[in-house]
Amino acid sequence: MGIFSKKEKASQVYKFIVVDGLPSIGKGELVRISLMPERIQIRQIMFGKAEASLRYDQVTAAAKVDETQIREVDKSVIGRAVVGGVLLGPLGAIVGGVSGIGKKQKTEYKDYFVINYTASSGEPAVLSFEMVGPPIGFDPFLRELKARAGIPETPAAPAGPTVL
């Protein structure tokens, strides 16, 4: 690269974790997706510098998908007994320990980014990524991607009752 060489600049960049669809980058790897002028660039951030790209005319759909995952977690009997003992003495330790018996539910929210595209072989294919952190700033990223790919925005639901 010389002094006067041109370097492509991305208009939007977002970080994701690979879930499926990229053979050159393993599942669980952190990637940066950049909206370049002519293509989408997917670049591995750590443990290598693998890269993949996708032309905008190959993209058929793109969306953010929410998943709510509920799992049961064991309550901490020892932790509750220690806290109860510190706060209320020996009786508090007994009550705190007893309150820790059983299970509680913990809800996790995960957001995913999915791109449907036509592979170079002509077959439909899917790329899926888990979003890193809260989806702050993702809506402009998705709008620009859809605009460049020529994907129309889904209309908002009309206000008021639905007339059948």
Model description:
The chain is an alpha+beta fold and 164 residues long. It is 21% helix and 40% strand. A seven-stranded antiparallel β-sheet has the order 4-3-2-1-7-6-5. It is globular, with a radius of gyration of 24 Å. The relative contact order is 0.19.
Describe, in short, the structure shown:
The protein has helices at residues 77-99, 138-149; strands at 12-20, 30-35, 39-44, 51-55, 59-74, 103-118, 124-131. The protein has 164 residues and is of the alpha+beta class.
Strand and helix layout:
Blueprint: E1 12-20, E2 30-35, E3 39-44, E4 51-55, E5 59-74, H1 77-99, E6 103-118, E7 124-131, H2 138-149
Antiparallel strand pairs: 1-2, 1-7, 2-3, 3-4, 5-6, 6-7
Task: Indicate the mean pLDDT.
Answer: 76
Amount of helix: 10-25%
Number-wise, the strands total 7
Unreliable sequence segments: 1-6
Helix tally?
Answer: 2
- For this structure, the quaternary state is single chain
Task: State Rg.
Answer: 24 Å
Main sheet characteristics: 7 strands, antiparallel
Name its key features.
alpha+beta; 7-stranded antiparallel sheet; 2 helices
